[in-house]
Amino acid sequence: MRKLLFDLFGLFMKIQNDDGVAGIHRAAHLDELGVDAKRFDILYRQLRGPLDAGTHNYAQYLNAIGQELNVDFHAIPGLIDATEQADVESWADHHNDMVSWLEQLHAQGKKPAVLSNVPHTHLAWLKENKPWLALFDPALFSCDLGLAKPDPAIYQAAIDALGGHGDDILFFDDTYANVVSAREAGLRAVHFTGLAQAQRDAEAFLAGEEIG
């Protein structure tokens, strides 16, 4: 039986906008600490793997960034918690049309699954505030698996969880590097560019066509 596997952020959840990023900068007191925001943003992305995998907490994550910037984020009381909260809030909005499609797939018995990078604190927030998350079956999250995309092992974990073979699973991700690594791990995968494209690819794949 063919199955659909989705990334979460950039598909169902909206990516950060400028206001959300600015909120993180304010919470982290970048101006006060003399930190270049662009350099911070680069490290924010580069060093996020252990946070997503659940092997580092947010304090350890900011400490790793601080070491690269030669600043001590722990020196300002409350900064760690405030920055983590701002981080979660920057990823808090979802796409209504994608959620509607998810509901349709679920109602049709398609059992869509999800494989997403997400830290523990953010996942807890999602489970509390996005009830539609429960429609994914199975729901696979990096912080629970101890792995993060694009580690090949996380795709094997997904194949094992869904059963069958990677050839029978079509994975959608908006990050092209993750599409490449998923294919290398044995999944069929397509680069997500929008709802209409995803619906066409999903329908064709479930009908037996060679997609991904």
Class from helix and strand fractions: alpha/beta
**Arrangement of strands in the largest sheet:** 3-2-1-4-5
Write down the Rg: 18 Å
Q: How many domains is the backbone divided into?
A: 2
Largest sheet: 5 strands, parallel
CATH architecture of the largest domain: 3-Layer(aba) Sandwich
Task: Give the integer mean of the pLDDT values.
Answer: 98
Instruction: Give the CATH superfamily of the largest domain.
Output: HAD superfamily/HAD-like
> Can you count the beta strands?
5
Shape: elongated
In the CATH scheme, the class of the largest domain would be Alpha Beta
- Tally of alpha and pi helices: 12
Remind me, CATH topology of the largest domain? Answer: Rossmann fold
Assign a percent range to the helix content: 40-55%
Order of helices and strands: EHHHHHHHEHEHHEHEH
Low-confidence stretches: none
Strand content: 5-15%
Question: What distance lies between the first and last C-alpha atoms, to the nearest angstrom?
Answer: 16 Å
Fold and architecture overview:
The chain is of the alpha/beta class and 212 residues long. It has 2 domains: 3-14 and 94-206, Rossmann fold; 18-89. It is built from 12 helices and 5 strands. It has helices at 18-27, 30-33, 37-46, 49-52, 58-69, 79-89, 96-107, 120-129, 142-145, 152-162, 176-184, 195-206; strands spanning 3-6, 113-116, 139-141, 169-173, 188-191. It has a 5-stranded parallel β-sheet with strand order 3-2-1-4-5, with helices on both faces. Strand 2, helix 8 and strand 3 (139-141) form a beta-alpha-beta unit. Helix 1 packs antiparallel against helix 6 (79-89) and helix 3 crosses helix 5. The longest helix has 12 residues, at 58-69. Pfam families: Hydrolase.
